[in-house]
Write a structure and sequence with these properties.
It is a single chain. Helices cover 31% and strands 12% of the residues. With 115 residues, it is an alpha+beta fold. The chain has a domain at 9-84: 3-Layer(aba) Sandwich (His-Me finger endonuclease fold), CATH 3.40.1800. The strands form 2 sheets. Strands 1-2 form a two-stranded antiparallel ribbon. Strands 3-4 form a two-stranded antiparallel sheet. The protein binds zinc ion. Zinc ion is lined by residues 23, 25-26, 28, 57-58, 60-61.
Length: 115
């Protein structure tokens, strides 16, 4: 996975101007200080730190995007784990219902052996 690196303040300012001082997603005017810097393609999903993989988002868009990526991120982490041979925890098998399946309970409550 690519190491996380950050944009220089100069690069951020340049990007902010290129985006017309707006959020890259909803196009709402966003002050430079309120801008959140996002990897267009997340690092864990083979994204890079290249200038073209960065965008400035407003806080609500950034939160929403991060949430959208959560499933993909979890899957990528899982696959990376399998690839590296990491043992994952398996949930214990659920016990079968506490009723002997060889028996049958009728609606009136009487129990009889299945035939
Ligand atoms: Zn936005």
């Amino acid at each position: 996975m690519t190491r996380r690196r950050y944009l220089t303040p100069h690069a951020k300012l340049k990007l902010w101007h290129e985006q017309g001082e707006n959020c890259a997603e909803c196009r709402t005017a966003t002050a430079f200080s309120r801008m959140q810097w996002d990897h267009v393609l997340a690092l864990c999903l083979t994204g890079t730190n290249d200038a073209h993989n960065w965008q400035g988002l407003c806080a609500p868009c950034h939160t929403a995007k991060t949430r959208r990526e959560a499933g993909m991120r979890a899957k990528a982490d899982r696959q990376r784990g399998y690839h590296l041979g990491v043992k994952t925890r398996r949930w214990p098998k659920l016990p079968s219902r506490p009723f002997d399946t060889r028996l049958r309970r009728r609606f009136d409550g009487t129990v009889e052996v299945r035939t």
